[in-house]
Write a structure and sequence with these properties.
The complex is a heterodimer. Chain A contains 11 helices and 7 strands. By secondary structure, chain A is an alpha/beta fold. Chain B is globular. Classes of the chains: A alpha/beta, B alpha+beta.
Amino acid sequence: MTDTLSTSVAYELKPEALHDAYRMMRTIRAFEERVHEEFATGDIPGFVHLYAGEEASAVGVCSHLDNRDTIASTHRGHGHCIAKGVDVKAMMAEIYGKSTGSCHGKGGSMHIADLSKGMLGANGIVGGGPPLICGTALAAKQKGTGGVGVAFFGDGASNQGTTLESLNLAAVWNLPAVFVAENNGYAEATSSTWSVASDNIADRAAGFGMPGVIVDGFDFFAAYEAAGEAITRAREGGGPTLIEMKFTRYFGHFEGDQQTYRADEVARARETLDCLLRFRGRVTETGQLSLEELDRIDAEVAELIDEAVDEAKRAPKPRAADLTTDVYVAY
Amino acid sequence: MGDTVVGIVANPLSGRDIRRLVATASVFPTAEKANMVQRMLTAFGVVGVDRVLVGTDLGGISAAVLRAIGTRPPRDPPWPEVEFLDQDPITQTAADTVNAVRRMAEAGARVVVCLGGDGTVRAAAAACGDTPLLPLSTGTNNAFPQLREATVAGLAAGLVAVGAVDIAAVTRRAPVLRVDGAGRSELALVDVCTSVNRYVGARALWDPAALTELYCTFAEPDGIGLSSVPGVLCPSPRDEPSGVALMLCPPAEATWVVAAPIAPGLVVPVGVRSWRRLEPGEVVEVATPRGVVAVDGEREIEFSGAPAPRVTLRPDGPRCVDVRAVLAGPARNRLIQEVER
């Protein structure tokens, strides 16, 4: 007989934890909706890819992580950064290319990183994150830190050799790693039902001898429980897991994407499946939180985002003399 | 040409939940589900089914069947005409099963084959009405659907469809448990269980400490899933109209502690305070003050406060095909041709 499994009752969240999870998801949503508006004004340089709609994944996973743990993100990385604790104002300044940004304004949206928080960076290379996580997970295992590495990647990256090689490596080395496939249905404009041969990304786990599970990515509680089990398993030496979160992104692949490849699924998702909407409904029905509390969090988050944008706009740009600092290669 | 119609609905998501992670449950790949549909089409072709209605999905099952139809070598035995039910928008929820089965029943399907786990059959049962159902296991717990070779199941379903058997003799109405609570109504084919979990979360139940009450339509000693608890302690055969009700508790306070396989790979001690027979038509009010009601092992309804959810054992569940009874009866002769020399 066994009692080694974590119990589902262990995932019962106290009101304070529910506050934190909601605040985190709301912060990501408000951040992304504001970037959507500001990008249209032309003030933000470069490309941005927005995470709105997918918040339950980043928050459900990162709620179980601490500073021992590392995450690797994607080009759609703002949500992962926020959920892993990267400073929101520094992120906004980074997106504006200002010297007060997380990477002193030299990285921009797709390269926000904060190693002090275990956030290895957003990543412009599709499928670039999983190999990095094999590295940090191996380091954690060798050093015995108890740390876990989590690679977030999309349905497009699920077809990349780097991702498949990393799944294999993590399995043969029994690494403390969790692979989170965020399947939002489209790799840029290509439908995953057309391009992913097994259709369910989670099915591929069986080929690497690791558990693969599918989670309703719009449901914070489902994501939280599945991630908790996978992270505990990894931390205790049980090896890697592949979790597939299924959901829809609310904005285009990038800002400016005309989205001629998809129909009205976003409106339906926003109205009926939305992670924040469902979270509000459920925690108030169980009486754990009140609508007033949730609305107060919304107001506080809105204020934070206003300040972040104002400060980012006023902040100085990097100086020409700083061009060759903060880079890996010396010139 | 006649128009003997059979329906096949296959759930692309069955066998994918968190039990792969917490209980090393089996993986049932999409490709195998599509292969099962194809093996059934071959069997249907042999016994003379004219038309097969196949549900559509985004998981790749219907796409693989469509591809197979287009690439089949002409020398292979003929399949019936296949019609894909693509009228309803695909939601990737249980509604897809419900919509497909409802359309099959309306289109005059003589039998509907359902590929999935307990949860999938539950969805099909809510929509099939009087149309016989043949549930085949491709899910996790599979206390209700049978684990059978699809070719053989296809022969049996086909023989039912072409009228080779007396339907009353080879089908049986399964009892169901109906749960009404928190403004919702759900059917369970095997078990209803209350848990002190507040949220539906990852749906499956795998922690016995959270369980409080268990109601089963039947409980067999060789069963898997929550019904294995009474299956071991106080069995209640599948073909009897009565069921069984148990009050669960922590092992320290229990009258009996049962080592039960509550999920594949998970044999855990479950504390039972008391048990009794559950009679057909009996309505029981759930005693747990707040929590979640799980149907057939999946957390489904979150409830708190009055009115408490009610559980009713009803005799009028789906009419299910007994594969062995079909093939053991006179219909078997349809597969025999006496050769004159």
